[in-house]
Amino acid sequence: MGRRYLSLALLTEGASDQWFLVPVIDRQITELALEAPAGFDYAGVDVGECFTVAHRDLVARQVTDLLCYYDIVMIHHDHNERGKVDAIRDRFPDDAHRIVALVPVRETEAWMLADPEALREAAPTRDAGRVVPGDVEKAADPKAVLRAALGGRRDAERDFGRLGQTVALDALRKVPAYRAWTAELRRAMEQLRFL
To answer: Domain of life here (predicted)?
Structure first.
């Protein structure tokens, strides 16, 4: 019997979330693959066509399509929109275990603050050490803190992508919402017998 292939799809609130989350997801899956007794192949997460801020029916149609082709569909929302993920899951009772919520507290930018070293690398001229990694979700306005840490630069695609590639997963694991996401992802992978 050959190795299995894990396929993942991601729906996010917006494009800037994708720039950070896609490399983080790929790195986290690569790490989880080391725990798989039989191993599996994985070529990276694919991004869906609609954003999760779209009307719930449109998001549900996109999830319907993705569940036909992907083992796991991850739905990203900021914490204040958590109910949307649960409402989508309710529409797919037979496949709810294949729908994984990726829900940072406040905003995705809080996760980008988790590793001061990665922030210093992204913006070497700024002091990025003002946020304690495990407390990043307590920041009232993570976008403003991140903007200040990056020196007010406006090249979000490059900076967010670079942070997604360099943020230490150990630092992210200190963030409660990140741990919740990886625990849910692990459960889905176990139910599908990848782990």
So the answer is: Bacteria
pLDDT digits (tens, 9 = 90+) for 32-51: 999 888 889 999 999 999 99
Q: Could you tell me the two tokens for 155?
A: 């090249």
Q: Is 164 exposed, middle or buried (0-12, 13-18, 19+ CB in 10 A)?
A: buried
Q: Which two tokens stand for residue 76?
A: 């990203």
| pTM score | 0.89
Which residues, including other chains, have CB under 8 Å from residue 135's CB and lie 6 or more apart?
none
Backbone angles phi, psi at 68, to 5 degrees: -70, -25
Higher pLDDT, 116 or 185: 185
C-alpha–C-alpha distance, residues 190 and 120, integer Å: 36
The H or E element that residue 41 is part of is strand 40-42
Q: How many CB atoms lie within 10 A of CB 115?
A: 24
* Contact call for residues 107 and 142 (beta carbons, < 8 A): yes
